[in-house]
């Protein structure tokens, strides 16, 4: 591979377009040469105006790329893109996939990355799963987190590109680890969203301003770190009584159980169903690692 990394980007949607725009804007500084493809003409035109080149097909894009980033909607589309890319690698006829590394940014099913990696390896193509976290805003500013699953060799090949796209690049482990990492992260994300909707219903029944509540939540989460503030232990195992974390989380547990009891009582008074709150009251302590008998 020469000093300049030839980057192909497929999928210029809500997050893919600002990711590609970030690459386009950093080409000279990061020694990248960006070419893009999308079925929709408008985002391709925008990226060309920003300094990228356009490819006429996925196959043509793959044939001229060292790193091919794929940010499409679902497993079926990912497989379709990979089929075209691998066909182009086969047509190259050199038996080594022309040095191509495919980066699957789409969030796919847990077993999909290993299946795709096996297909790619038959063509001499490296493949990693590298879902992202941080949304369109993080994509546009280069502040995403990218969670990579794949071999050390493949990770090294894509690192110059990932460093442009992301403020935090995590080599989570072998193929599939990036996807599992993303699913664990999003479990918390969407469970928290569900809890937020429950809090909104409780607040509305209590006659409160929901917009003001949202502003307070965003303000205080920015200060405290939100749910991620408790995620410093390197194990989910049960804690030893008297240990540092047992003592540290003991205060948190007392506050949480008191406030959850009050919130559930208010919900009962107002006739609001709060199953997430009841489950949190039941499961927070053992989830933190307190022995079950401490319940």
From TrEMBL:
InterPro entries in the cross-refs:
6-PGluconate_DH-like_C_sf, 6PGD_dom2, 6PGDH_NADP-bd, HIBADH-like_NADP-bd, HIBADH-related, NAD(P)-bd_dom_sf
Q: Quick check: keyword Oxidoreductase in the entry?
A: yes
- Record's keyword terms, sorted: NAD, Oxidoreductase
Source organism superkingdom: Bacteria
- Report the transmembrane regions from the record: none
Keyword field contains Oxidoreductase: yes
Start and end residues of each 3-hydroxyisobutyrate dehydrogenase-like NAD-binding domain = 176-284
- 6-phosphogluconate dehydrogenase NADP-binding domain location: 6-173
Similarity comment text for this entry: Belongs to the HIBADH-related family.
Protein name in UniProt: NAD(P)-dependent oxidoreductase
| Originating organism | Actinomadura violacea
């Amino acid at each position: 591979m020469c000093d300049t990394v030839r980057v192909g980007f497929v999928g210029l949607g809500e997050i893919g377009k600002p990711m590609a725009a970030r690459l386009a804007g950093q080409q000279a500084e990061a020694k990248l040469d960006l070419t893009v493809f999308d079925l929709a003409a408008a985002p391709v035109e925008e990226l060309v105006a920003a300094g990228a080149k356009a490819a006429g097909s996925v196959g043509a894009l793959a044939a001229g790329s060292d790193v091919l980033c794929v940010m499409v909607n679902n497993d079926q589309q990912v497989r379709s893109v990979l089929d075209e890319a691998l066909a182009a690698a086969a047509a190259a006829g050199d038996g080594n996939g022309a040095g191509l590394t495919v980066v699957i940014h789409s969030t796919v099913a847990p077993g999909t990355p290993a299946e795709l990696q096996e297909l790619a390896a038959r063509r001499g193509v490296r493949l990693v799963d590298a879902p992202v976290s941080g949304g369109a805003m993080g994509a546009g500013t280069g502040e995403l987190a990218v969670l990579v699953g794949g071999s050390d060799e493949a990770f090294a090949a894509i690192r110059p590109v990932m460093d442009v796209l992301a403020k935090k690049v995590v080599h989570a482990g072998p193929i599939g680890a990036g996807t599992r990492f993303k699913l664990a992260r999003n479990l918390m994300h969407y469970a928290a969203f569900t809890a937020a909707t429950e809090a909104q219903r409780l607040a509305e029944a209590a006659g409160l301003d929901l917009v003001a509540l949202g502003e307070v939540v965003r303000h205080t989460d920015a200060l405290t770190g939100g749910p991620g503030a408790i995620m410093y232990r390197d194990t989910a195992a049960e804690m030893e009584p008297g240990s540092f974390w047992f003592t540290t989380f003991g205060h948190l547990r007392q506050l949480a159980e008191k406030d959850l009891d009050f919130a559930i009582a208010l919900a009962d008074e107002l006739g609001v169903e709060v199953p997430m709150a009841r489950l949190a009251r039941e499961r927070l302590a053992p989830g933190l690692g307190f022995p079950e008998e401490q319940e």
